[in-house]
Amino acid sequence: MCGPNAPPPNATACVGADWTGAAPKVVIGQTQSNAQILTDIASGQLPQVTWVIPDGQDSDHAALNDGCGPSWVTSIVNALGNSQYWPNTTIILSWDDWGGWYDHVPPPQLLSDCAQWGCGYVYGFRVPLLVISPYAKPAYISHVNHDFGSILKFIETKFNLPSLGYADAHALDDLSDIFNLSQTPNVFQPITPPPNDATCKADTSPPTDPDDD
Asked: Residue 29 region, left (φ>0) first, then alpha (ψ -120 to 50), else beta?
């Protein structure tokens, strides 16, 4: 979304109207206390496709977060579920790392010599993925193999968009097994906020980088 274009150490300076305009499409440097996503939901200004990434303290990265990840997720899911958007919204919740704990399923072997597609984009250990939607199959556990490209593929299929030509073009699927579009729509069930919810929402500490690789 914002490639290297500045001297190290950060090597990235996001420029252009999408980042710096009066009504930017990309909003950075926020925490729960001033989250644009919650303002957009409440005002009916939420874009059709929205990516939300927490700051480091609101993430679930080990040894980096302050325990506010569940509060962050709960606030967004409940805001959407109790809004005008619920009848036609899909919330896809995932994590970018597997956490370093036990997983009995070994990663698929994708490459043998790095001479074909996928060098640098390979499968690792599984990460959680939750789908929350009026048309998601209730209490459904998918046994289909998905990858991060599946999320892009889902969006492209929904909006009849062409492929970006990389991860989405090679995606294992488009998450379609998770949905039943003919079912009676699920009634939203609010998530009970965690005990530290009020403290997390009131935290005005400067945002931190969520990536601790």
From this structure: left
131, amino acid identity: V
What are the structure tokens assigned to 64, written together?
């980096």
Q: What one-character-per-residue DSSP string does the chain give?
A: -----S-TTT-----SHHHHSSS-SS--S--GGG-HHHHHHHHT---SS------TTTS--TTT--S-HHHHHHHHHHHHHTSTTGGG--EEEE-SS--SS--SSPPP---SSS-STTTT----S---EEEE-TTBPTT----S---HHHHHHHHHHHHT----SSTTTT-S--SGGGB-TTSPPPPP-PPPPPTTHHHHHH--PPP--S---
Closest C-alpha to 111, from 127, 100, 122: 122
Domains in the chain: boundaries:
91-188
Pull the structure tokens for residue 48: 């059709």
The pair of three-digit structure tokens given for residue 161, joined into one six-digit string:
């968009």
Q: Is the pTM of this model over 0.90?
A: no
- Residues 28, 14 contacting (CB under 8 angstroms): yes
> Is the alpha carbon torsion for 52, 55, 60, 61 positive or negative?
positive
Q: What is the pLDDT of residues 129-159, one digit of tens each?
A: 999 999 999 999 999 999 999 999 999 999 9
State pLDDT tens for residues 59-101: 888 777 899 999 999 999 999 999 999 999 999 999 988 877 7
